[in-house]
């Protein structure tokens, strides 16, 4: 997949793609339907997605609590799996934010990237002050010579599928409901970083990853599916993961610590994708390490049973 980050200096041979536009946080089933419409609108054109980095919400409210379901790299990996050939990951800055809706349509979509067709959701807003609507984009397309398809909002069980609804499910410890809306397990992807090696001392060596900048799921222990994306141990594994602040050890910064079943090796520096399958229990404190170890054994037994039934 080609990643393009500049619409002002764009090679002529790369023009003509059919592109879905949006933030695509989570790449949920609603996003997937928009991408499929872009694929079908121009079957002979390269399939693309236009998104923005940083997320506009991060740009306008940098001090707001973390809300993203996935980082940019994880989003790119998911989009590539869907057959997206061109990812237009445009820098969201003052210049882009200051474009009027018509300037965005002309300077970015038409003259800049030369897109043949664009697909947006019915609630799509764009341009300075989010003043442009999907209907405006249709009008600009007719005027400037690119096709526009407006996708209806997708519903599941009478509720609109949205990143907000997925965040709510994760906050409440319902990863299965989040997966129904996502069309895949909610995954936390990142580099394995050094920890305090307490898990190794307890007989449960864990791969530690930061969740900084991501919407935190409900703190506690999960049954997980783990993909090691690179390095000598690349492959898929079952495991159990703890998300939170480690109350037994007075942790402060939330992270995710994952124990891979039947695994032996060094994962430092590898990239992991940890899929949350089921919420097992909340964070707890114990009178001593013996109680903690007994509970960890019980957690792993339960996770093995749940994952073995998938």
TrEMBL record:
Residue stretches in coiled coil: none
One annotated GO molecular function: FMN adenylyltransferase activity
Domain of life: Bacteria
Keywords, alphabetical: ATP-binding, FAD, Flavoprotein, FMN, Kinase, Multifunctional enzyme, Nucleotide-binding, Nucleotidyltransferase, Transferase
Pathway as given in its UniProt record: Cofactor biosynthesis; FMN biosynthesis; FMN from riboflavin (ATP route): step 1/1; Cofactor biosynthesis; FAD biosynthesis; FAD from FMN: step 1/1
Protein EC: 2.7.1.26, 2.7.7.2
Domain Riboflavin kinase: from-to ranges: 181-308
Gene3D superfamilies membership: HUPs, Riboflavin kinase-like
PANTHER family: RIBOFLAVIN KINASE, RIBOFLAVIN KINASE/FMN ADENYLYLTRANSFERASE
NCBIfam families membership: PRK05627.1-3 (NF004160), ribF (TIGR00083)
Chain's role: Catalyzes the phosphorylation of riboflavin to FMN followed by the adenylation of FMN to FAD.
Name the UniProt record assigns to this protein: Riboflavin biosynthesis protein
